[in-house]
Amino acid sequence: MKGRHGKNRQRAGLGICIRNDAGEFVRSKTDWFAPLCDVDLRETVGLHTTLQWISDLQFDNVDFALDSKRVVDHVNSYEDDNSDFGCIISAYR
After folding, report:
1. How far is it, in rounded angstroms, from Cα 35 to Cα 13?
2. CA-CA distance, 30 to 45, in Å (whole number)?
3. Greatest alpha-carbon span in the chain
4. DSSP readout, 14-82?
5. Number of neighbouring beta carbons within 10 Å of residue 12
6. Which helix (H) or strand (E) holds 13?
7. Could you read off the pLDDT of 14-51 as tens digits, one per residue?
8. pTM surpassing 0.90?
9. Per DSSP, what are the bridge partners of residue 8?
10. Which GO molecular function annotation, any one, does this entry have (predicted)?
11. Using 50, 70 and 90 to split pLDDT, how confident is the model at 1?
């Protein structure tokens, strides 16, 4: 992506929306980070950021909707994975 001034910006955006059990808006957050990694690792960093925010808000019993099947499958499995991807996910199990 090129910035307004022609500089190359390799950044990813994160959008988080929290809704209550009736589907009503509660809170939202956006963030940018500069990934030097593949798309699955970016998705995992986004999940990590979200989990930290949820923890800081002291919310519990939270359901997540993610758009990366690989990340979802990895979170739902309990296989050991020593990659950067696996280490981030394992930190929240």
Report:
1. 10
2. 14
3. 45
4. EEEEEE-TTS-EEEEEEEEE---S-HHHHHHHHHHHHHHHHHHTT--S-----S-HHHHHHHH------
5. 16
6. strand 12-19
7. 899 999 999 999 999 998 887 667 888 888 888 888 98
8. no
9. 2
10. RNA-DNA hybrid ribonuclease activity
11. very low
